[in-house]
Predict the 3D structure of the following.
Amino acid sequence: MKFGVVVFPGSNCDHDCYHVLKHVLKKDAEFVWHKDRDVSKFDCIVLPGGFSYGDYLRTGAIARFSPVMEAVKKHAEKGKLVIGICNGFQVLLEAGLLPGAMLRNESLKFICKFVTLRVESTDSPFTKKAKKGGLLRIPVAHGEGNYFADAGTLAELNKNSQVLVRYVDNPNGSLENIAGICNKERNVFGLMPHPERASEEELGSTDGRRIFESIIEHCGTR
Amino acid sequence: MSMTMDIEITPEIIAKHGVTPQEYASIKKILGREPNITELGIFSVMWSEHCSYKNSKNVLKLLPKDGPRMLVKAGEENAGVVDIGDGWVVSFKVESHNHPSAIEPFQGAATGVGGILRDIFTMGARPIVSMNSLRFGKIDGENAAATKRLLSGVTAGIGFYGNCIGVPTAGGEVYFDESYEGNPLVNAFSLGLAKKEEIANARASGLGNPVFYLGSATGRDGMGGASFASKDLSEESEKDRPAVQVGDPFMEKLLLEAVLELLKSGCVVAIQDMGAAGLTCSTCETASRGGTGIEIDVAKVPQRETGMVAYETMLSESQERMLVILKKGREAEAKKIFEKWDLHAEAIGQVTGDGLMRVKENGVTVAEIPAKSLADDGPVYVREEKEPAYLKETQAFDPKSAGPAGDLNAVLLKLLDSPTIASKEWVYHQYDHMVRTNTVVLPGSDAAVIRIKDTKKYLAMKLDCNSTYCYLDPYEGAKIAVAESARNVACSGAEPISITNCLNFGNPMNPEIFWTLKKSVEGIRDACLEFNTPVSGGNVSLYNQNPKGAVDPTPVIGMVGLIDGWEPVQSNFKSEGDVILVLGKTREELGGSEFLKTLFSIKSGLPPRLDLKEAGKLVKVLVSLAKKGFLRSAHDCAEGGLAVALAESCLLEEGREIGAKVDLPQEGVSNEAFLFGESQNRVILSVSPKNLKAVEDVLESMAYPYRVAGKVGGNSLEIGKLIQVPLAVLKPTWRQAIGRRMES
């Protein structure tokens, strides 16, 4: 299988994702430039963290208009996998590939630290190798990770088990402790924590690998 | 004829530019005529302390700069370059942004980060880590509101810039003392990594090579910032707000990627950041270094405001701009890279052979000055020096006269609650300290440790200065700043290799302040010689004064250490049953201690003495133990002494706190000095019981004094019969001390 890691101007976790996929998990991975319009050769697209286009307006608000996002939408429509991490999650929300919106953290401050997540559903290509109710220790690093959705959307998310991970200690005021959600079709996943920062023993946790390994297993058995 | 040429140069205008009558006479001699206003402006910024080091040059030359690892030495380029073996090099520097941060904390601190990052990546090195040293007035009492505003703004500004550009802010220090009221210190450090062959230079060469302007357009922001940084702060300074620049980290991220790509392409002759004194400094310095001349036309400089005259364009300190000299004929190749990153670049001039910096405006010459005279022939002063009168009194002070400290458990809690000692998590949680996934030792430990992927190398680094010691004894205090940062790096398992420094002092015209500057530099020199850590570069920030007086002498040391093939060490206790050792000797040393400051509001006494030979030996001991993989943890005893250091080792890792029980002979010192004295060269180790014998063998063979003091484990910290406090009490006191004050 092949991962494509999108590089927007201002992406800064692109190399971190690439490093884990290519050098830690030894999978095929390539960077995808934001001006590219064809992502058909990839099985899974990674929208990495960072500050796409500076994020001066609203996180992800400009990135959604970049040429590559048209291709990512088509890729998702075909049922192929998309994972958005941190800024990537914000871009997916802005692009309408996932429901809801991000508000500034309740503290109004950027927050970077390890948090604990609870896996809410293993019925997805992104969490199938995790344990339901299991805990993952993964860092967050964001200023706008306070997930918000209207009551109807929230009910829908819960009904369809689209909330894949929740915070045990909510760091940002996110509604119902939501840390990551998938779409109804379960092939697009966005999460605020950074699994690529928790994929090597040396960095203090390998829990993030569970997410990448789920994707790899899913794509391998398709 | 440019409109700027019409202004008559009067003594008032000369004085307004901070140019002395003697300096003006030198300018006339260099030019062989009167300067026009643009030229006067150019001289004034290049000959300001910030750019010329005219008051500190004579002292700075005392510092050791040579060593086998030093590939580019201090002062030769924008930053020094140090060899770390196997073809890898690092470039690092610390720089002040004190005055802008005092006026506008958010942007002042943010642009400080941006500036130091540019210094590093113009060397061809990719910045992989940042740190900062921050100093504010007291956070309690009548100054609390001002300190909170500054701390909030500075922290948010550093985060804004560093987080966006994606360089982890992995360490540093935050220090509170009343001497910084009205004049906070914001020193930003950055370190970059490169392969040896990737190192770039800032020497203009090759007649006719085109000079390009790259990045943001020029506006009137930061006009004369270098001169602004070279005078005392006063209430009038508020009016200088336009002298503070505004940062755009996204633009800088694009510049960073484009510049590194451009340098790899081989079409660059020289490159320099437009930092202090902007276009002026970058043009005359590249020409002076290259022994060439340079000619530019300001009309070709992209401008974001209308009606800017040459004077303004030359002196603007707008951010995120670079000067790039390309190889003639390679312009198209470079333009492709600029376009890829959506960057604006303009050809504004060329390299010439006449040694002149010639500025034109629409083809008409508006300034013509020998480049070398601006960059290298500025005035150099030998300032008067005099030992400060207060030292007699402070050094005679007997800490015992402060009176009884009372309940020792309560004293420990009070110290852990002191903002200078307490956990800095309120600050570093606002910094992305993990991006790039190299931060293997997170903030809070003795030093930040960054791995270098694809190698077995790690870099440990620390910014350090106890300015209270420097106030009470500048020579000993500066020595200690070097020794403590070396010890911090060695506690992390690394061999100290080189330092950078930022000398923050008051007005050098005051002989007492100049004396403290000189003594501090002598202290740094002697310590660097002992540790074999040459100075790779740095910065001097003078005129750190507020209406009440000068800041305490603050020579901030940025120590970098190398781990080459073994594992780094953290400061926190790990497992139940590990054996605790205390290295070094405790003496009756409470002068200048945090104990005196916190308990009695006394900043006096003789600070602890540092035996440099012993300090050098301790570093060797620590590195040798780390190399053998024997250390479960190592933590330096610093502010707050033995008791605070033990508590920190218990508390450092959130969620994995663990107690400790120690008992060791007091050897005749008072309870207070035993627990809270700040005797130097002491380190707390924990080792696995199975390695104890081997560790003791190393300590014996190297003849370093130590005691086996106790064991890790339990839910409280116990020190003999003197201290017994549950972790549940220690933890919130220490961890939330700053947050509690900030949120109240």
